[in-house]
From TrEMBL:
The lineage of its organism: Bacteria, Bacillati, Bacillota, Bacilli, Bacillales. SUPFAM superfamilies: Winged helix' DNA-binding domain. NCBIfam families: HTH_metalloreg (NF033788). One of its GO terms (molecular function) is DNA binding. PANTHER family: TRANSCRIPTIONAL REGULATOR, ARSR FAMILY, TRANSCRIPTIONAL REPRESSOR SDPR. Keywords: DNA-binding, Transcription, Transcription regulation. CDD domains: HTH_ARSR. Signal peptide: none annotated. This is ArsR family transcriptional regulator. Residues 1-93 form the HTH arsR-type domain. Pfam families: HTH_5 (PF01022).
């Protein structure tokens, strides 16, 4: 079996589709591993692997309810990505404004 390199930065971590899906599930409410497995195409070991990576990145925390580990989203680390995206939002906003002006002139 190949030894896969662990993602080292937040962009690499959320680039993976299954991890984004897990983040989306946790955005609505905290969930157990079993709930995440039910709502994904992954096995329990697969979900656990992704949750471990998300936990190590500080994107999720856990609490314990009876025998279940409940995962909670920590959105604070996503501010790094939001900050990086800000200039691109302005870029697209400017382009859309120019397009709107062009279309208004065409009428």
């Amino acid at each position: 079996m190949q030894n896969q390199r662990k993602p080292t930065n937040l962009f690499e971590i959320i680039a993976e589709t299954n991890r984004r899906h897990i983040i989306d599930l946790l955005r609505t409410r905290p969930r157990s591993v079993g709930e995440i497995v039910e709502r994904s195409q992954l096995s329990q070991p697969g979900v656990s692997k992704h949750l471990r990576i998300l936990r190590e990145a500080g994107l999720v925390t856990t609490s314990k309810e009876s025998q279940k580990h409940i995962y909670h989203l920590r959105a604070e680390p996503l501010k790094e990505i939001d900050h990086w995206l800000e200039p691109y939002r302005q870029y697209w906003s400017d382009r859309l404004d120019a397009l709107e002006e062009f279309l208004d002139e065409e009428e």
